[in-house]
């Protein structure tokens, strides 16, 4: 369940499957009333930014569409706590292949060079990468020395702290509402789960009373337009599409339509691209430029969906798409059953060296609607070593 900071609106907690059935669909062109939150209906905030994750650590209220809080998260989400715990169990299960190899390092009785060597190997096998592995080992040794730890179990706890601190800058909420409409451009290689992620995010926004318009600008992949049409039908939101149309033209029309219809959010599904396909990456740049012509300051978010199973290749994608588009956020999918969960450490270290961090807004651990949840550094670090 997601919630807003400004009005604490509850996001729907339906256990919908990731694949949208074609039955019971409403015409995509007709705008149905916004879905009511799972809890008691609350009036939609006016001219107030809709914040993203309310899962941000207790202090600041700077997060946006967010899943139900973890046990120590913000108030008003107690009803969703069991759902959050269920999701955390899925996250732990998904990262078990990664975490088991790391956790085994701490089953011994001594803290010596052999332990650190085994830990280095485990982190590399988890696709943390050479730079992030060296960073974590150096930080861990410092923490062990300062804490004067003599128990490997204590060292494991210190590693959780080190990973949490490294990942912390990635923990930020997606915010919509500062601009009307808020224009979100979504990119990613084919197979990363881009269109399905858009469908899930759209459902959460619609359940929270946000009027969403989709742009089917993925005219490159067969059936991509049809897939997004099904999501639009299921979520009862409008969609702008053209069979075989130019992606830039589709997005331009969608942004213009979103402004004319008073939509809160416009989400553009762009074609899957490989970073090595330079002519196709140039088309993405064109789409972004055209969005800017349709509305000043847009796009307000440029999100990249990456498959967590691809390991270090995910980091390569992040770098390439950031260079081409200037990313504002990430969605990491398919963290169910992967042995490569350490790649988030590599992304976090790269993000530190950038002029500003690229946050991970959401992570996905399955096909169901509730399997897309906001990212929390400590939750992830604990799941990684559980």
Notes on the structure:
With 386 residues, the chain is α/β, with parallel strands linked by helices. The protein folds into 2 domains: 94-170, Four Helix Bundle (Hemerythrin (Met), subunit A); 182-377, P-loop containing nucleotide triphosphate hydrolases (Rossmann fold), CATH 3.40.50. The chain is built from 12 helices and 8 strands. It has an 8-stranded mixed β-sheet, with helices on both faces. Strand 7 (360-364) and strand 8 (372-374) form a beta hairpin. The longest helix has 18 residues, at 130-147. Belongs to the GTP-binding SRP family. FtsY subfamily. It catalyses: GTP + H2O = GDP + phosphate + H(+).
Main attributes of the structure:
11% strand; disordered N terminus; 386 residues; GTP binding; Rossmann fold; Four Helix Bundle (Hemerythrin (Met), subunit A); hydrolase
A few lines on this structure:
The protein is of the alpha/beta class and 386 residues long.
Count of distinct structural domains: 2
Count of runs of 4 or more consecutive helical residues: 12
Count of β-strands: 8
Main β-sheet, spatial strand arrangement? 3-2-4-1-5-6-7-8
Q: Helicity, in percent?
A: 40-55%
For the terminal residues, how far apart are their CA atoms?
24 Å
Radius of gyration: 21 Å
Any guess at the CATH architecture of the largest domain? Answer: 3-Layer(aba) Sandwich
The H-level CATH homologous superfamily of the largest domain, spelled out, is P-loop containing nucleotide triphosphate hydrolases
Shape: elongated
| Name of the top-level CATH class of the largest domain | Alpha Beta
Could you describe the largest sheet, including whether it forms a barrel? Answer: 8 strands, mixed
- What fraction of residues sit in β-strands? 5-15%
Helices and strands: which structural class? alpha/beta
Q: So what's the oligomer here?
A: single chain
Q: Which stretches are poorly predicted, pLDDT < 50 over at least 5 residues?
A: 1-79
Task: State the CATH topology of the largest domain.
Answer: Rossmann fold
Spell out the helices and strands N to C. HHHHHEHEHEHEHEHEHEEH
Average pLDDT, to the nearest integer?
78
């Amino acid at each position: 369940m997601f919630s807003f900071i400004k009005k604490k609106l509850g996001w729907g907690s339906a256990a919908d499957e990731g694949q949208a059935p074609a039955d019971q669909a409403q015409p995509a062109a007709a705008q149905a009333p916004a879905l009511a939150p799972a809890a008691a209906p609350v009036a939609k905030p006016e001219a107030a930014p809709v914040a993203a994750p309310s899962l941000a650590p207790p202090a600041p209220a700077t997060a946006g569409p967010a899943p139900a809080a973890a046990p120590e998260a913000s108030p008003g989400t107690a009803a969703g706590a069991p759902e959050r715990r269920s999701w955390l169990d899925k996250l732990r299960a998904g990262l078990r292949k990664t975490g088991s190899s790391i956790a085994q390092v701490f089953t011994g009785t001594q803290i010596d060079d052999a332990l650190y060597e085994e830990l280095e190997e485990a982190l590399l096998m988890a696709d943390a990468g050479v730079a992030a592995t060296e960073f974590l080992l150096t930080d861990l040794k410092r923490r062990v020395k300062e804490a004067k730890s003599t128990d490997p179990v204590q060292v494991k706890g210190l590693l959780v702290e080190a990973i949490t601190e490294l990942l912390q800058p990635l923990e930020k909420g997606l915010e919509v509402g500062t601009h009307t409409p808020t224009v979100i451009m979504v990119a990613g290689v084919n197979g990363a789960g881009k269109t399905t992620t858009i469908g899930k995010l759209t459902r959460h926004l619609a359940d929270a009373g946000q009027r969403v318009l989709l742009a089917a600008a993925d005219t490159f992949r067969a059936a991509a337009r049809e897939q997004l049409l099904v999501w639009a039908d299921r979520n009862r939101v409008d969609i702008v599409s053209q069979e075989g149309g130019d992606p830039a033209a589709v997005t331009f029309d969608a942004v213009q339509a979103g402004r004319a219809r008073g939509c809160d959010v416009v989400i553009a599904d762009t074609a899957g691209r490989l970073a090595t396909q330079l002519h196709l990456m140039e088309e993405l740049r064109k789409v972004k430029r055209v969005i800017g012509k349709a509305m000043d300051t847009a796009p307000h978010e440029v999100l990249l969906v990456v498959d967590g199973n691809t390991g270090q290749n995910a980091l390569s994608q992040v770098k390439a798409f950031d260079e081409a588009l200037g990313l504002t956020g990430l969605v990491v999918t398919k963290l169910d059953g992967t042995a490569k969960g350490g790649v988030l450490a590599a992304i976090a270290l790269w993000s530190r060296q950038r002029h500003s961090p690229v946050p991970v807004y959401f992570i996905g651990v399955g096909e169901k609607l509730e399997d897309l949840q906001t990212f929390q550094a400590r939750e992830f670090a604990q799941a990684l070593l559980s």
